[in-house]
Amino acid sequence: AALACKAAAWYLRFRRLELAIPGPPSLPFLGNALSFVNMKDDLLERLLALWGHQPRLSRISLCGHLLLFVSDPADIELLIRGKATQNKARTFYEPIEYFTHDGLVTLNGAKWRAHRRAIQPAFYQGILENYQDVFQEECAAYVARVRGGEQGGEQDLSEGLRLTVASAFLRTTLTLDRADEEEARQFDRLLAIVLRAMEAVPSAIVSRVFSPWLWPGPLFGLTGAARLVRRLRGLIDAECDIGLRRLRQQAAAGDDFFRKGRTLSDLLQRASAAGVLSDEEIRNELTTLTAAGVETTSASLAWTLKVLSVCPDVQQRVLLEVKDVLGDATAVSAHHVARLQYTERVIKESLRLLPALPVVARTNREETVFSGHTVPRGSTFLLNVSGAHRDPRHWEEPLRFDPDRFLPERSAGRHPYAYVPFSIGSRDCVGSRYAMAVMKTLLANVVLAFSVDPVDDGLTDPAHFPMTFDIASRMPGHTRVVFNARTCVP
Ligand code: HEM
Fold it and tell me: Which residue is closest in CA terms to ligand 1's atom 7?
């Protein structure tokens, strides 16, 4: 009885605090959980409808758990920098852990710091340059596949881009050499598993985040989605073990490639030798990086190609820049990547209007007063990245696609938290430069080979492209363009 009284007192207080914060009507106990039943590729739409475009703070609740939308860059800064709100929100990140287990994206505290220190060097500029040949080969292979397909017809972008990014990722992280028969077989097996995981895992994650009845691990574990995620993770682990064994043999044989510490798995392997990471932690990090890197990068590329298809002037400027920077070269080098400045602004602008992660989530370790409201401990703050990116107080004509707004002279004085596609601060994206190099290389290869033309789907304005998201944002259904081979390049 004492426990029941305590629970009732807790809930009554929670309910009072909940209703004091602006937000849509919410049912006792259930809150807004019924708004997420039967989702069909419309999660973002539902969230934004509930958010109601409140300028500072609005809430929804799911069975006694508060979710707060925050869109003002100044408030995003408070949350990202605040000591009590450093940690990732469990509601959002625990379901990811079902696939990644403990990895950089979901870890907190001292363990996160140790892992970040071990992994970060794999993404330093000098190391990334070693990956460029692989990026170029995979992007050229993408162009060849498009060329080999039906020309002039509509193309769905997602699958082909995911294949390209995943291939580049596996080759640069697990050091798989496709010239070696055995490694080539492992590469094919792992690629097939990763592609299958990228198809199945995001929807399993989202189904759990917004279904409070699936929050208890054992209940979720009984679902078909959970069984599939476990099976895929088991397959990835088995392949990682094979890869790690091989790396260790190469290291023991004094392999030059290994000694140069050129890849992520080399660094992880060193961290393991130094006792910083166990084999299990290495498997977790490799899975985490795959989940964090493949979908976000291929989604951002799909958005950018879709934008180019409806903005011919922008596409023309990209093409002219690529021709100018590459000259007679046929392959994009690290040196070229650094010089593709307009292309970079196009990607940045595309990430502004169509961010791959339109929200990120933090939790408060203790009860907090935020924007004049008391927020119970353990609530989820949803940082509305899309909202900050379109805030008219920080962006002139925010709905216009204008890459030159990222010119240094036009960026000066802009609020640093008004543009956060890779998040910001100590928990920013570890792979942002990696992603940028892949994206610039792919766009350069594509615009040289094809004119990227629009399909007849009535979508002409990037600011109004429909968007949904699971592990990353995407267009509901298919993202389609037409690739027409260029006959002459001006
Ligand atoms: C265009 C592509 C990408 C975008 C837009 C993007 C965006 C982001 C964002 C917004 C976060 C913060 C998430 C949060 O706070 O919950 C993040 C974190 C992270 N990203 Fe990326 N990402 C991209 C590509 C990549 C790539 C290619 C990799 C790895 C190869 C990667 C690995 C990670 C990791 C490990 C974290 C967690 C970092 C930490 O908490 O220490 N991302 N990313």
Answer: 422
- In tens, the pLDDT along 418-472 reads 999 999 999 999 999 999 999 999 999 999 999 999 999 999 999 999 999 888 9
CB-based contacts of 370-378 (< 8 A; 24+ apart in sequence): 370/57, 370/68, 370/75, 370/78, 371/56, 371/57, 371/75, 373/17, 373/20, 373/21, 373/57, 374/17, 374/20, 375/17, 375/21, 375/66, 375/68, 376/13, 376/14, 376/17, 376/66, 378/65, 378/90
Instruction: Note the pLDDT tens digit of each residue in 369-386.
Output: 998 999 999 999 999 999
- Of 124, 155, 160, which Cα lies nearest the Cα of 442? 160
Nearest CA to ligand 1 atom 2: 297
Q: What is the pTM of this model?
A: 0.95
Q: Whose CA is nearest to atom 24 of ligand 1?
A: 293
Say how far residue 231 (Cα) sits from the centre of its chain.
23
Cβ(423) – ligand 1 distance below 6 Å? yes
- Average pLDDT estimate for 271-293: 89
